[in-house]
Amino acid sequence: MSLNSVNTNTGAMIALQSLNAINNEYAQVQRRISTGLKIASAKDNPAIWAIAQNMRGESKSLDAVMSSLQRGQSVVDTALTAGESISDILSQMKEKALAATEDGLSTATRQALSDEYVALRKMINTVAANASFDGVNLISAGSTGNIRALADTRANSSIDVDHIDLSTTGTAISSTLTGLMGGVATADIDAIDAAIQKVSSALSKFGVGAKSLDRHLDMISKRQDTIDAGIGNLVDADLAKESARLKSLEVKQQLAIQALRIANQTPSLLLSLFR
Question: Which residues on neighbouring strands pair with residue 136, listed in sequence order?
């Protein structure tokens, strides 16, 4: 093909191809800077995009696991707070029961002690019945509420905390006296002591469950952070590097435009040969 042709301008064609390639690369760099991603869609790098997308799905699934664990934490914390109140109430009941063992008490005094004791015992049921979070109560009377918090994204395992009845009808407290007017024996004081120990044991189990939930939540949070960082390593753009490339491409773009302008002027120079 002749280089001195007005029909086919080879130089302009080459200059245009170069300009188009630079413009495509310039658009790609601009897209990376605007999105912050070097791989924003499957066409950028199908294999890496698929890996990153799968990891995003895993990270989103961990959100559900963390929500389940956090809900479990709230349920257990509510039960612990109520259980501690019940333990304090039992201590006050023991105080009233001990006072009622004193010889020579008047009927009015014994009645007053009994009324306080009965009120405290009723308060246990009130506290137990109100120790609910999101409809789950670990210590209420006759409840079967328990915690089965998700432990992984496949729902294969869970962090379990079982229900323990801490009302006056539960095995922990039911053996305590219902009132003091019928007299208080050593066995009755022992029954209150036993109730305090059983409540403490129940609180210890809830505490173990709370610790398990806390530890697993911390582990899941760290795992999610690691996954998110891994996704970033795969698809995030190096903005400093892309910024430098953008400046370089701007210069190349101007040079390519100038080269195309020169190439387009070449055929007109042939006119001078005919003057």
Answer: 133
